[in-house]
Fold this sequence. Notes:
The protein folds into three domains: 1-35, no CATH class; 44-62 and 119-247, Alpha-Beta Complex (Nucleoside Triphosphate Pyrophosphohydrolase), CATH 3.90.79; 68-116, no CATH class. The chain has helices spanning 2-18, 27-35, 45-58, 160-163, 173-178, 226-234, 241-247; strands spanning 74-77, 82-85, 91-98, 108-115, 119-130, 133-142, 150-153, 156-159, 183-192, 202-210, 221-224. Strands 5, 6, 7, 8, 9, 10 and 11 form a seven-stranded mixed β-sheet that branches. A four-stranded antiparallel β-sheet has the order 1-2-3-4, with no helix packed on it. A hairpin with a 5-residue loop joins strand 2 and strand 3. By secondary structure, the protein is α+β, with helices and mostly antiparallel strands. The two termini are 22 Å apart.
Amino acid sequence: MHEEFDKTLKNYLLFLKDEKKYLKKNIFKYENTIEKINNWTNSNFKNNLNWYNQVKKNCRAKVTKTHIEKLKKWNYDKTKGRLYHSSGGFFSIEGYSITNAGREVNKWDQPFIKQNNLVGGIIGLVRIKIKGIPHYLVEAKYEPGNYNMIQLSPSVQSTYSNLNQVHKGQRNKVIQFYFKKKFQTLRKIWVSEDGGRLFKKRNLHWIVESRYKPIALGENYKWLSLWEIEEFINKGTYVGPHLRAILSLI
């Protein structure tokens, strides 16, 4: 099907040039427009749903409500009114008073989630061409607060504390393989988070096109076309906020 994709893209670019709307710097945007208008890979979307449901079925994680002062490795400083991790990394919970807000009310008090050094992490998306059609690496990722346990996330969704292994966990394989060499940066922008809950937090949104072939990363990872990702978005709560946010850069 890549011949049809290439032909459609070529005709679209010719149209833009004829209308004097073409800008070379926007080629990635033009390609994305064509990518998502058709199922170029003739994908049977039921197979993608089956993959997602199998990942969800295999997830054995449990969440148990625990008294906030009994959380392991989390300390509560009663003098400062601050909850923080014993490593000094990740985030803390701190209280703030807001005045002269010019909102529904002019002043209020609230807790904020404050990221260490006010820097969040990397939200990364890897793009490669499989049989001539652009695909994006997504992860069916578990987060304890997810509405439905598993949500589709970008190729990388990790705080700098996690990337620096403050949690003593494994290195991020995607960062190590796809973001070190043989890639072209398509987008690299600091993007702000929700300021109603998170205090001045930003994440680095980074989209790369890799010259490597796909590698085995485990059952939770899958290469999807932009059309397939949009199908997941259209079905409701399958796609997490970070993947939706980085797709907005496309």
